[in-house]
Specification:
The protein is mainly alpha-helical. The protein is about 65% helix and about 0% strand. It has one domain.
């Protein structure tokens, strides 16, 4: 397994920054509430926004390193692989992390859950695009060739 660690870290930082920008500034333009993951993380961490931001970017970087490991098994070009991967952190965040932070499953709101889904799909697509091509280990049905005369 050949993981490009530096590229994964860069992808995680860039993907997290883009996801954050979308949540803070684009979501309100689409009629959704602004979403600041660092602020949500800061609450359980004693209210420190600095810790919230550090945790947010650390999580994004760790998730990108995990992406580097699983990407060869995902189908499609890099951005598609990344977006598909983005579904996993979305589900973990909504089903496990939110309740651990005292919030309802799927953020208790269709609008918030959809905003989170969009953010995670964008994060994944950016991570996949920045990380780039990987050798595919995705297997499709075996190809059978017809034997032609003896």
């Amino acid at each position: 397994m050949n993981i490009k660690t530096g590229r994964a870290i860069a992808a995680g930082m860039i993907g997290t920054a883009v996801m954050t920008a979308v949540g803070l500034w684009v979501a309100p333009l689409m009629g959704m509430p602004p979403m600041n993951p660092a602020e949500m993380l800061a609450g359980p961490m004693g209210g420190s926004m600095a810790l919230g931001w550090m945790a947010h970017f650390a999580i994004g970087t760790i998730l990108a390193l995990i992406y580097a490991v699983v990407a060869p098994w995902l189908p499609g070009p890099p951005a598609v692989r990344g977006a598909l991967y983005g579904l996993a952190p979305f589900l973990v965040a909504q089903i496990v992390v939110m309740p651990m932070m005292g919030m309802p499953v799927f953020s208790g709101s269709v609008a918030m859950a959809m905003g989170s889904l969009i953010g995670h799909l964008i994060y994944g697509a950016v991570v996949g695009g920045v990380y780039g091509e990987v050798p595919s280990r995705h297997t499709s049905a075996p190809q059978h060739t017809a034997a032609v005369g003896h």
